[in-house]
Amino acid sequence: MIWLLLLISLINSSPPDDDFYNPPSNLSDYALGEIIRSRQSPHPITSMFINPLPIVSSHQLLIRSQDTFQNPTAIITTILIPPNPDPNKLISHQPFENSAMQRCAPSYAMSTPNFETFQIQTDLVFIAAMLSQGWYVNVPDHEGANSAFLAGIKAGYSVLDSIRGAQSFLKLKSRISNTTMTGKFRVGLFGYSGGGFSSIWASMLVSTYAPELNIVGLAGGGTIVNITLVMETVDSGLYSGLIVNMLQGLSNEYGDFKEALMKYGEIQPLHCLFPSAKEYFLQKIIGGVYDRDLLFDEIIRKKIMENDLISSLLVPSVPVFLFHSRIDEMSPFEEVLKLKEYWCSRNVSLELAEDMSYNHMVGAYMGAPAAITWLEQRLNGSLVSGCIHEFRLTNLGYPGVVPTLRTFFERTLQLFQRQS
Protein backbone atom coordinates (compact mmCIF):
# COMPACT_ATOMS: atom_id res chain seq x y z
CA MET A 1 0.00 0.00 0.00
CA ILE A 2 2.80 2.44 0.90
CA TRP A 3 4.55 2.03 -2.47
CA LEU A 4 1.24 2.70 -4.25
CA LEU A 5 0.69 5.94 -2.33
CA LEU A 6 4.20 7.07 -3.16
CA LEU A 7 3.63 6.27 -6.85
CA ILE A 8 0.42 8.32 -6.87
CA SER A 9 2.23 11.28 -5.33
CA LEU A 10 4.92 11.12 -8.02
CA ILE A 11 2.44 10.90 -10.91
CA ASN A 12 0.17 13.79 -9.90
CA SER A 13 1.05 17.19 -11.32
CA SER A 14 1.35 19.79 -8.58
CA PRO A 15 -0.59 23.07 -9.04
CA PRO A 16 2.38 25.10 -10.38
CA ASP A 17 2.75 22.56 -13.21
CA ASP A 18 -0.95 22.25 -14.06
CA ASP A 19 -2.32 24.72 -16.63
CA PHE A 20 -5.85 24.23 -15.29
CA TYR A 21 -4.90 26.41 -12.32
CA ASN A 22 -3.80 29.34 -14.47
CA PRO A 23 -6.37 32.17 -14.80
CA PRO A 24 -7.19 33.58 -18.25
CA SER A 25 -5.94 36.99 -19.34
CA ASN A 26 -9.52 38.34 -19.31
CA LEU A 27 -10.14 37.29 -15.70
CA SER A 28 -11.81 40.57 -14.79
CA ASP A 29 -14.51 39.93 -17.41
CA TYR A 30 -15.94 37.11 -15.28
CA ALA A 31 -18.44 37.76 -12.50
CA LEU A 32 -17.63 36.88 -8.91
CA GLY A 33 -18.37 33.20 -8.39
CA GLU A 34 -18.57 32.48 -12.13
CA ILE A 35 -17.09 29.23 -13.38
CA ILE A 36 -14.14 29.87 -15.70
CA ARG A 37 -13.51 26.22 -16.52
CA SER A 38 -14.28 22.79 -15.11
CA ARG A 39 -13.06 19.21 -15.39
CA GLN A 40 -13.38 15.86 -13.73
CA SER A 41 -10.69 15.57 -11.09
CA PRO A 42 -7.63 14.31 -12.99
CA HIS A 43 -6.71 11.87 -10.23
CA PRO A 44 -8.92 9.92 -7.81
CA ILE A 45 -9.56 11.32 -4.36
CA THR A 46 -7.48 8.96 -2.23
CA SER A 47 -7.56 8.52 1.54
CA MET A 48 -4.83 7.06 3.72
CA PHE A 49 -7.48 6.03 6.25
CA ILE A 50 -10.74 5.18 4.44
CA ASN A 51 -11.10 2.90 1.43
CA PRO A 52 -13.30 3.18 -0.49
CA LEU A 53 -14.50 6.73 -0.03
CA PRO A 54 -18.24 7.27 -0.62
CA ILE A 55 -17.70 9.31 -3.80
CA VAL A 56 -19.46 8.73 -7.13
CA SER A 57 -17.58 11.48 -8.95
CA SER A 58 -15.26 14.40 -8.29
CA HIS A 59 -14.99 17.64 -10.24
CA GLN A 60 -12.68 20.64 -10.15
CA LEU A 61 -13.76 24.18 -10.98
CA LEU A 62 -11.72 27.30 -11.58
CA ILE A 63 -13.82 30.17 -10.22
CA ARG A 64 -13.51 33.94 -10.31
CA SER A 65 -12.99 35.54 -6.91
CA GLN A 66 -11.06 38.48 -5.47
CA ASP A 67 -8.30 39.15 -2.98
CA THR A 68 -8.30 41.33 0.14
CA PHE A 69 -7.92 44.44 -2.01
CA GLN A 70 -10.73 43.43 -4.42
CA ASN A 71 -8.30 42.62 -7.23
CA PRO A 72 -9.56 39.77 -9.46
CA THR A 73 -8.28 36.31 -8.61
CA ALA A 74 -9.15 32.74 -9.58
CA ILE A 75 -9.55 29.90 -7.09
CA ILE A 76 -9.92 26.16 -7.40
CA THR A 77 -12.69 24.25 -5.70
CA THR A 78 -13.41 20.52 -5.73
CA ILE A 79 -16.99 19.20 -5.83
CA LEU A 80 -17.57 15.72 -4.41
CA ILE A 81 -20.73 13.83 -5.40
CA PRO A 82 -21.97 11.15 -2.98
CA PRO A 83 -24.10 8.11 -3.82
CA ASN A 84 -27.81 9.03 -3.77
CA PRO A 85 -27.31 12.70 -2.92
CA ASP A 86 -29.94 14.74 -1.11
CA PRO A 87 -30.48 17.24 -3.94
CA ASN A 88 -30.59 20.50 -2.00
CA LYS A 89 -28.02 19.94 0.75
CA LEU A 90 -24.50 21.26 0.29
CA ILE A 91 -21.62 21.48 2.74
CA SER A 92 -18.67 23.74 2.10
CA HIS A 93 -15.81 22.08 3.93
CA GLN A 94 -12.70 24.19 4.54
CA PRO A 95 -9.81 21.84 5.43
CA PHE A 96 -7.17 22.85 7.97
CA GLU A 97 -4.43 23.37 5.42
CA ASN A 98 -2.55 25.68 7.82
CA SER A 99 0.21 26.15 5.26
CA ALA A 100 1.51 28.80 2.90
CA MET A 101 2.43 26.71 -0.14
CA GLN A 102 0.20 25.87 -3.10
CA ARG A 103 1.23 22.22 -3.12
CA CYS A 104 -0.49 21.86 0.28
CA ALA A 105 -3.88 22.97 -1.12
CA PRO A 106 -6.86 20.58 -0.90
CA SER A 107 -7.36 20.23 -4.66
CA TYR A 108 -3.92 18.64 -4.93
CA ALA A 109 -3.51 17.07 -1.50
CA MET A 110 -6.77 15.08 -1.58
CA SER A 111 -5.40 12.95 -4.41
CA THR A 112 -1.80 12.84 -3.18
CA PRO A 113 -1.61 10.84 0.06
CA ASN A 114 1.81 11.25 1.64
CA PHE A 115 3.49 12.83 4.65
CA GLU A 116 3.57 16.26 3.01
CA THR A 117 -0.21 16.31 2.53
CA PHE A 118 -1.04 14.49 5.76
CA GLN A 119 -3.06 17.39 7.19
CA ILE A 120 -5.54 17.31 4.29
CA GLN A 121 -5.66 13.52 4.46
CA THR A 122 -6.96 13.79 8.03
CA ASP A 123 -9.69 16.12 6.77
CA LEU A 124 -10.89 13.47 4.33
CA VAL A 125 -12.25 11.60 7.36
CA PHE A 126 -14.69 14.45 8.04
CA ILE A 127 -15.51 14.72 4.35
CA ALA A 128 -16.26 10.98 4.14
CA ALA A 129 -18.68 11.26 7.06
CA MET A 130 -20.51 14.14 5.35
CA LEU A 131 -20.71 12.34 2.03
CA SER A 132 -22.20 9.37 3.89
CA GLN A 133 -25.04 11.68 4.96
CA GLY A 134 -25.87 12.17 1.27
CA TRP A 135 -24.59 15.75 1.20
CA TYR A 136 -22.78 17.33 -1.72
CA VAL A 137 -19.40 18.54 -0.46
CA ASN A 138 -17.60 21.61 -1.78
CA VAL A 139 -13.90 21.72 -0.86
CA PRO A 140 -12.33 25.06 -1.83
CA ASP A 141 -8.67 25.99 -1.91
CA HIS A 142 -9.75 28.65 0.56
CA GLU A 143 -6.31 30.23 0.98
CA GLY A 144 -6.32 31.14 -2.71
CA ALA A 145 -3.73 30.61 -5.41
CA ASN A 146 -1.10 32.48 -3.38
CA SER A 147 -1.70 30.33 -0.26
CA ALA A 148 -2.51 33.35 1.91
CA PHE A 149 -2.94 31.46 5.19
CA LEU A 150 -4.74 33.67 7.76
CA ALA A 151 -5.70 36.40 5.27
CA GLY A 152 -9.24 36.38 6.62
CA ILE A 153 -11.11 38.63 4.22
CA LYS A 154 -9.64 36.89 1.19
CA ALA A 155 -10.46 33.49 2.69
CA GLY A 156 -14.06 34.56 3.26
CA TYR A 157 -14.38 35.77 -0.33
CA SER A 158 -12.85 32.53 -1.63
CA VAL A 159 -15.25 30.34 0.35
CA LEU A 160 -18.33 32.29 -0.71
CA ASP A 161 -17.35 32.44 -4.39
CA SER A 162 -16.61 28.72 -4.35
CA ILE A 163 -20.14 28.09 -3.06
CA ARG A 164 -21.56 30.26 -5.83
CA GLY A 165 -19.64 28.24 -8.39
CA ALA A 166 -20.52 24.91 -6.78
CA GLN A 167 -24.23 25.71 -6.85
CA SER A 168 -24.09 26.73 -10.51
CA PHE A 169 -22.24 23.53 -11.37
CA LEU A 170 -24.63 21.27 -9.46
CA LYS A 171 -27.70 22.93 -10.98
CA LEU A 172 -26.28 22.48 -14.48
CA LYS A 173 -25.36 18.87 -13.72
CA SER A 174 -28.91 18.28 -12.47
CA ARG A 175 -30.45 19.64 -15.68
CA ILE A 176 -28.16 17.55 -17.86
CA SER A 177 -28.93 14.35 -15.95
CA ASN A 178 -32.66 15.15 -15.56
CA THR A 179 -32.49 14.74 -11.79
CA THR A 180 -34.79 16.58 -9.41
CA MET A 181 -33.50 19.71 -7.72
CA THR A 182 -36.17 22.04 -6.36
CA GLY A 183 -35.79 25.26 -4.42
CA LYS A 184 -32.64 26.82 -3.04
CA PHE A 185 -29.67 24.94 -1.71
CA ARG A 186 -29.38 24.77 2.04
CA VAL A 187 -25.68 25.32 2.67
CA GLY A 188 -23.64 24.50 5.75
CA LEU A 189 -20.09 25.58 6.52
CA PHE A 190 -17.58 23.36 8.31
CA GLY A 191 -13.95 23.83 9.23
CA TYR A 192 -11.43 22.98 11.92
CA SER A 193 -8.39 25.00 13.04
CA GLY A 194 -7.37 27.20 10.08
CA GLY A 195 -10.37 25.81 8.20
CA GLY A 196 -12.60 27.07 10.99
CA PHE A 197 -10.92 30.48 10.67
CA SER A 198 -11.80 30.70 6.97
CA SER A 199 -15.32 29.41 7.60
CA ILE A 200 -15.96 32.06 10.24
CA TRP A 201 -14.73 34.82 7.95
CA ALA A 202 -17.16 33.56 5.30
CA SER A 203 -20.00 33.65 7.85
CA MET A 204 -19.11 37.25 8.75
CA LEU A 205 -18.98 38.44 5.13
CA VAL A 206 -21.89 36.56 3.57
CA SER A 207 -24.60 39.13 4.40
CA THR A 208 -22.81 41.87 2.46
CA TYR A 209 -20.74 39.93 -0.09
CA ALA A 210 -23.05 37.07 -1.10
CA PRO A 211 -26.50 37.68 0.44
CA GLU A 212 -28.17 35.41 -2.13
CA LEU A 213 -26.56 32.32 -0.56
CA ASN A 214 -28.79 30.35 1.80
CA ILE A 215 -26.21 29.48 4.45
CA VAL A 216 -28.09 27.86 7.32
CA GLY A 217 -25.25 27.32 9.77
CA LEU A 218 -21.54 27.16 10.53
CA ALA A 219 -19.84 24.45 12.57
CA GLY A 220 -16.23 25.18 13.48
CA GLY A 221 -13.76 23.79 15.98
CA GLY A 222 -10.25 24.39 17.30
CA THR A 223 -10.39 27.76 15.59
CA ILE A 224 -7.48 30.19 15.44
CA VAL A 225 -9.02 33.15 17.27
CA ASN A 226 -6.01 35.22 18.38
CA ILE A 227 -3.11 34.95 15.91
CA THR A 228 -0.44 36.45 18.17
CA LEU A 229 -1.43 34.32 21.16
CA VAL A 230 -1.39 31.15 19.04
CA MET A 231 2.17 31.99 17.94
CA GLU A 232 3.26 32.56 21.53
CA THR A 233 1.51 29.37 22.68
CA VAL A 234 3.06 26.96 20.17
CA ASP A 235 6.55 28.47 20.13
CA SER A 236 9.37 26.11 21.17
CA GLY A 237 6.97 23.17 21.02
CA LEU A 238 5.63 20.42 18.79
CA TYR A 239 4.06 22.90 16.37
CA SER A 240 6.67 25.67 16.28
CA GLY A 241 6.63 25.37 12.50
CA LEU A 242 3.05 26.64 12.46
CA ILE A 243 4.42 30.10 13.30
CA VAL A 244 6.57 30.09 10.17
CA ASN A 245 3.53 29.09 8.11
CA MET A 246 1.41 31.84 9.70
CA LEU A 247 3.96 34.57 9.01
CA GLN A 248 4.54 33.37 5.45
CA GLY A 249 0.80 33.13 4.78
CA LEU A 250 0.27 36.78 5.69
CA SER A 251 3.39 37.70 3.69
CA ASN A 252 1.83 36.06 0.64
CA GLU A 253 -1.10 38.51 0.77
CA TYR A 254 0.49 41.68 2.12
CA GLY A 255 3.65 43.01 0.47
CA ASP A 256 4.29 45.49 3.29
CA PHE A 257 3.98 42.68 5.85
CA LYS A 258 6.61 40.68 3.96
CA GLU A 259 8.97 43.66 3.78
CA ALA A 260 8.55 44.28 7.50
CA LEU A 261 9.10 40.61 8.35
CA MET A 262 12.41 40.54 6.46
CA LYS A 263 13.81 43.12 8.90
CA TYR A 264 13.61 40.52 11.67
CA GLY A 265 14.96 37.43 9.95
CA GLU A 266 15.25 35.56 6.67
CA ILE A 267 12.17 34.25 4.87
CA GLN A 268 12.08 30.54 5.67
CA PRO A 269 11.62 27.60 3.25
CA LEU A 270 8.00 26.61 2.66
CA HIS A 271 6.50 23.41 4.07
CA CYS A 272 3.05 21.92 4.54
CA LEU A 273 1.81 21.63 8.13
CA PHE A 274 3.31 18.33 9.29
CA PRO A 275 6.66 18.70 7.47
CA SER A 276 6.87 22.19 8.98
CA ALA A 277 6.27 20.73 12.44
CA LYS A 278 9.08 18.26 11.79
CA GLU A 279 11.46 20.90 10.40
CA TYR A 280 11.05 23.29 13.34
CA PHE A 281 10.38 20.75 16.09
CA LEU A 282 10.92 22.39 19.53
CA GLN A 283 12.67 25.39 17.92
CA LYS A 284 12.19 28.90 19.22
CA ILE A 285 10.77 30.97 16.35
CA ILE A 286 9.94 34.33 17.98
CA GLY A 287 13.23 35.37 19.55
CA GLY A 288 15.11 32.66 17.67
CA VAL A 289 14.50 32.23 13.94
CA TYR A 290 12.99 35.74 13.97
CA ASP A 291 13.84 38.62 16.29
CA ARG A 292 11.21 39.02 19.00
CA ASP A 293 10.74 42.69 18.11
CA LEU A 294 8.68 41.64 15.08
CA LEU A 295 5.64 41.37 17.37
CA PHE A 296 5.98 45.09 18.12
CA ASP A 297 6.41 46.18 14.52
CA GLU A 298 3.61 48.59 13.60
CA ILE A 299 2.91 47.07 10.17
CA ILE A 300 2.99 43.47 11.40
CA ARG A 301 0.73 44.26 14.37
CA LYS A 302 -1.71 46.13 12.12
CA LYS A 303 -2.03 43.31 9.58
CA ILE A 304 -2.44 40.70 12.29
CA MET A 305 -5.20 42.73 13.95
CA GLU A 306 -6.98 43.21 10.60
CA ASN A 307 -7.24 39.42 10.29
CA ASP A 308 -7.72 38.41 13.93
CA LEU A 309 -11.15 37.11 14.81
CA ILE A 310 -10.68 38.43 18.34
CA SER A 311 -10.06 41.95 16.97
CA SER A 312 -12.83 42.02 14.36
CA LEU A 313 -15.98 44.02 14.92
CA LEU A 314 -17.77 41.83 12.36
CA VAL A 315 -19.97 38.98 13.57
CA PRO A 316 -21.51 35.94 11.82
CA SER A 317 -24.95 36.45 10.30
CA VAL A 318 -25.76 32.71 10.46
CA PRO A 319 -26.20 30.30 13.40
CA VAL A 320 -22.87 29.07 14.79
CA PHE A 321 -21.75 25.87 16.52
CA LEU A 322 -18.26 26.03 18.03
CA PHE A 323 -16.53 23.01 19.54
CA HIS A 324 -13.27 23.46 21.38
CA SER A 325 -11.22 21.67 24.00
CA ARG A 326 -10.40 23.45 27.24
CA ILE A 327 -6.91 21.91 27.06
CA ASP A 328 -6.28 22.79 23.39
CA GLU A 329 -2.52 23.33 23.27
CA MET A 330 -2.55 25.37 20.03
CA SER A 331 -5.51 27.75 20.24
CA PRO A 332 -6.17 28.80 23.87
CA PHE A 333 -9.74 28.22 24.99
CA GLU A 334 -9.89 31.53 26.88
CA GLU A 335 -9.89 33.41 23.56
CA VAL A 336 -12.85 31.35 22.35
CA LEU A 337 -14.73 32.39 25.50
CA LYS A 338 -14.00 36.05 24.74
CA LEU A 339 -15.21 35.61 21.17
CA LYS A 340 -18.36 33.86 22.39
CA GLU A 341 -19.14 36.67 24.85
CA TYR A 342 -18.75 39.34 22.16
CA TRP A 343 -20.82 37.48 19.60
CA CYS A 344 -23.58 36.77 22.11
CA SER A 345 -23.67 40.46 23.04
CA ARG A 346 -24.31 41.11 19.33
CA ASN A 347 -27.20 38.59 19.26
CA VAL A 348 -25.43 35.90 17.26
CA SER A 349 -27.18 32.53 17.52
CA LEU A 350 -24.37 30.48 19.04
CA GLU A 351 -23.76 27.14 20.73
CA LEU A 352 -20.35 26.53 22.31
CA ALA A 353 -19.59 22.88 23.09
CA GLU A 354 -16.66 22.81 25.50
CA ASP A 355 -14.72 19.57 25.70
CA MET A 356 -12.62 18.75 28.76
CA SER A 357 -10.60 15.81 27.48
CA TYR A 358 -8.64 16.25 24.26
CA ASN A 359 -5.76 18.13 22.68
CA HIS A 360 -6.02 20.01 19.38
CA MET A 361 -5.66 17.09 16.97
CA VAL A 362 -7.73 14.56 18.90
CA GLY A 363 -10.38 17.18 19.61
CA ALA A 364 -11.07 17.43 15.88
CA TYR A 365 -12.10 13.78 15.68
CA MET A 366 -13.98 13.71 18.97
CA GLY A 367 -15.91 16.91 18.20
CA ALA A 368 -16.78 16.21 14.57
CA PRO A 369 -19.75 13.88 15.34
CA ALA A 370 -21.37 16.69 17.35
CA ALA A 371 -20.71 19.22 14.58
CA ILE A 372 -22.16 16.93 11.90
CA THR A 373 -25.22 16.23 14.05
CA TRP A 374 -25.75 19.96 14.55
CA LEU A 375 -25.32 20.66 10.82
CA GLU A 376 -27.79 17.90 9.96
CA GLN A 377 -30.44 19.64 12.06
CA ARG A 378 -29.81 22.96 10.28
CA LEU A 379 -29.85 21.35 6.83
CA ASN A 380 -33.15 19.66 7.72
CA GLY A 381 -34.68 23.06 8.45
CA SER A 382 -34.63 23.05 12.25
CA LEU A 383 -34.23 26.62 13.51
CA VAL A 384 -32.02 27.59 16.42
CA SER A 385 -31.54 30.77 18.44
CA GLY A 386 -29.98 32.02 21.63
CA CYS A 387 -26.56 31.71 23.20
CA ILE A 388 -25.60 28.40 24.82
CA HIS A 389 -22.37 27.22 26.50
CA GLU A 390 -22.27 23.52 27.32
CA PHE A 391 -19.62 21.55 29.25
CA ARG A 392 -18.85 17.89 28.59
CA LEU A 393 -16.05 15.52 29.43
CA THR A 394 -16.19 14.58 25.74
CA ASN A 395 -18.24 15.95 22.86
CA LEU A 396 -18.87 12.36 21.80
CA GLY A 397 -21.69 12.63 24.33
CA TYR A 398 -23.43 15.39 22.38
CA PRO A 399 -27.21 14.75 22.23
CA GLY A 400 -28.39 13.05 19.05
CA VAL A 401 -25.03 11.70 17.87
CA VAL A 402 -25.85 8.31 16.36
CA PRO A 403 -23.68 5.36 17.52
CA THR A 404 -22.45 4.56 14.00
CA LEU A 405 -21.08 8.09 13.57
CA ARG A 406 -19.41 8.00 16.97
CA THR A 407 -17.84 4.60 16.27
CA PHE A 408 -16.64 5.71 12.82
CA PHE A 409 -14.62 8.58 14.30
CA GLU A 410 -13.31 6.57 17.25
CA ARG A 411 -11.99 3.82 14.97
CA THR A 412 -10.54 6.24 12.45
CA LEU A 413 -8.76 8.12 15.23
CA GLN A 414 -7.18 4.86 16.38
CA LEU A 415 -5.96 4.22 12.81
CA PHE A 416 -4.65 7.78 12.58
CA GLN A 417 -2.71 7.39 15.83
CA ARG A 418 -1.15 4.12 14.65
CA GLN A 419 -0.04 5.60 11.32
CA SER A 420 1.31 8.83 12.80
In total, the number of domains comes to 2
Largest sheet: 10 strands, mixed
CATH top level assignment of the largest domain:
Alpha Beta
**Judging from the principal axes of the Cα atoms, what is the shape?**
globular
Please provide the ordered H/E string of secondary-structure elements: HEEEEHHEHEHEHHHHHEHEHEH
Number of helices: 13
Strand content: 15-25%
Structural class: alpha/beta
Low-pLDDT stretches are 1-11
Mean pLDDT: 93
CATH fold name of the largest domain: Rossmann fold
What would CATH call the architecture of the largest domain? 3-Layer(aba) Sandwich
Give the CATH superfamily of the largest domain.
Alpha/Beta hydrolase fold, catalytic domain
Share of residues in helices: 25-40%
How widely separated are the two ends? 16 Å
Total number of β-strand segments? 10
Biggest β-sheet: strands ordered side by side in the sheet: 1-2-3-5-4-6-7-8-9-10
Measured on Cα atoms, how large is the radius of gyration?
Answer: 20 Å
InterPro entries: AB_hydrolase_fold, Lipase_secreted
GO molecular function: triacylglycerol lipase activity
Pfam family, one: LIP
Keywords: Disulfide bond, Glycoprotein, Signal
Tell me about this structure.
It catalyses: a triacylglycerol + H2O = a diacylglycerol + a fatty acid + H(+). This is Lipase 7. GO terms for molecular function: triacylglycerol lipase activity. The protein is built from 13 helices and ten strands. With 420 residues, it is an alpha/beta fold. A ten-stranded mixed beta sheet has the order 1-2-3-5-4-6-7-8-9-10. Helix 7 crosses helix 8 and helix 12 packs antiparallel against helix 13. The protein is globular, with a radius of gyration of 20 Å. The N terminus is likely disordered.
